[in-house]
Every structure is written in structure tokens, then in C-alpha cells.
Design a protein that fits this description.
Radius of gyration: 17 Å
CATH topology: Rossmann fold
Number of helices: 9
Strand content: 15-25%
Shape: globular
CATH superfamily: Vaccinia Virus protein VP39
Distance between the termini: 32 Å
Oligomer: single chain
Order of helices and strands: HHHEHEHEEHEHHEHE
Number of strands: 7
Largest sheet: 7 strands, mixed
CATH class: Alpha Beta
Structural class: alpha/beta
Length: 246
């Protein structure tokens, strides 16, 4: 296993129990959490009875939302501790019958060919060095006409200076793990190469969790709503992409 991949796994093993608290418990964090869930639910659409794979599920934030809407969820993560947190959440909600847990890598999905209706990979693609392999694996496991919903951090956004630094250093601004930011043209090209037809794009400004000044948040929320759909959406800091297997 590559060194950066090992570093990333070790980071999430250590962070698992505090992951939600650090990212989603401030006012800005709660807003980010709410908007991301709304976007994913919109792009996934009706998921009653659908077989869905949540790649790099983390603490299962999106998997729980979809299970509550009737989906049969398989969650995958490289971190055992993250998967344990997800299991506990599903247990509390009495949704364990809708949960299948798999530990593994996004670049080599432990799933049969053409077996899934939907795949999602949210807040993770920018930390996976083999991101193109992930899209190829998504194509492999989706049924014909199946849907993928993936998010990508966009450097062509208000956070441009950070994106330039990240792509130069190939690591996160705040920790030593592999990181890459994309742009809308690159994202479209990646999906086309992997034979996935882009159907919709939604943008999210994504506020830093330390940005909790109420006046600033009011302004940023108004700006965020303007970036929800193209053409302005192409300049949001997070791009959520819905694509269909051809």
C-alpha cells in the first residue's frame, strides 16, 4: 500500500470518534451538513428498494438518510473505526436490516459486476489518488442505466488560492494526506472517459467550520444559494455530479 494511502487510512482511524463533532457541530458545519444531504437526496431521487453503495462512507451521514428513505445500503470504507461508528448509528435508528458493511478500498470495490442501482462517493474523491480508478469501478458495479452521485472539490472557486496550493503540494492544507482539487471541465472529461453520462451538477460553497460569524454566515448563505446550479454553480467550491451508466 502506498505511503500516502496508509497515512490517509491512519488519519481516519484516529479521527473516527470525533469526526462528526469537529466538522458538523458548529453553526457553519450544521449548514454544510444540511445542504450536502439535501443535494445528495435530490440527485439520488427515489431510492425505495434500490441497492446503493456508499463509497468511503465515513460515519455514514448519507447512508443513513438514504436508508431512512427505503434504500438497501452497502457501505464501504478503508477505516474499521469509521465503519463501527456507522454501525452504531444504524443500530440506534433500528436500520441494521438495511445495512451491509464492507471494509476495503474505493479503487477496488468488493462488489460484483452490474449489481447496483446507485453508487455515491461524497467528500472523498479529492483524497483518493486513484480517483479515475474509482469511477471505472463505479461503472463496473452499476447496472445498465445505473446512477452515480459523486462530489469533487473545485479549485475554480472562491477558494482558488488554496486549490492552487493543494494541487501543487498534492496534500491537504491542514494535514499530510493526498489531496487533489478539480474543475468542471476535468470532471466532465473524467466521467466521459469512464463511460458515465453527466446528467446534473449542483454546487455548494462549503463554509470553513471556523467561519461562524453570524453576519458573515448570512452573506455566505445568500451567495451559496446562487451557486447551487450552473452556470454560477461551476464556480462553487464543491461540485456534486449525477451521472448515468450508458
Amino acid at each position: 500500500m502506498a505511503t500516502k494511502e496508509r497515512q490517509s487510512i491512519d488519519f481516519y482511524e484516529t479521527e473516527a470518534n470525533d469526526y462528526d463533532k469537529r466538522r458538523w457541530n458548529t453553526e457553519a458545519g450544521r449548514y454544510n451538513d444540511k445542504i450536502q444531504k439535501e443535494i445528495v437526496i435530490e440527485l439520488v431521487g427515489d431510492c425505495e428498494g434500490k441497492q446503493i453503495l456508499d463509497i468511503a462512507t465515513g460515519t455514514g451521514r448519507f447512508a443513513m438518510e438514504l436508508a431512512q428513505r427505503g434504500a438497501e445500503m452497502t457501505v464501504l470504507d478503508s477505516s474499521k473505526n469509521m465503519l463501527e461508528v456507522t454501525h452504531k448509528k444504524f443500530e440506534v435508528l433500528k436500520l441494521l436490516e438495511k445495512l451491509t458493511i464492507k471494509q476495503g478500498l474505493a479503487t477496488k470495490l468488493p462488489v460484483s459486476d452490474k449489481s447496483l442501482d446507485i453508487c455515491i462517493c461524497i467528500n472523498a474523491m479529492n483524497h483518493i489518488e486513484g480517483y479515475s480508478k474509482v469511477l471505472l469501478e463505479i461503472h463496473r458495479v452499476l447496472k445498465p442505466g445505473g446512477i452515480s452521485v459523486n462530489s469533487f472539490t473545485n479549485w475554480l472557486s472562491p477558494y482558488l488560492p488554496f486549490g492552487v496550493w493543494v494541487n501543487h503540494k498534492k496534500k491537504s492544507v491542514t494535514r499530510d494526506v493526498y489531496t487533489k482539487w478539480f474543475n468542471s471541465i476535468e470532471i466532465a472529461s473524467l466521467h466521459k472517459t469512464c463511460d458515465l453520462n453527466v446528467k446534473a451538477i449542483r454546487g455548494e460553497l462549503h463554509f470553513p467550520t471556523w467561519g461562524n460569524n453570524k453576519g458573515l454566515l448570512f452573506f455566505l448563505k445568500s451567495f451559496d444559494r446562487m451557486l447551487r446550479k450552473p452556470p454560477l454553480g461551476y464556480f462553487a467550491s464543491q461540485l456534486f455530479v449525477k451521472a448515468c451508466k450508458k
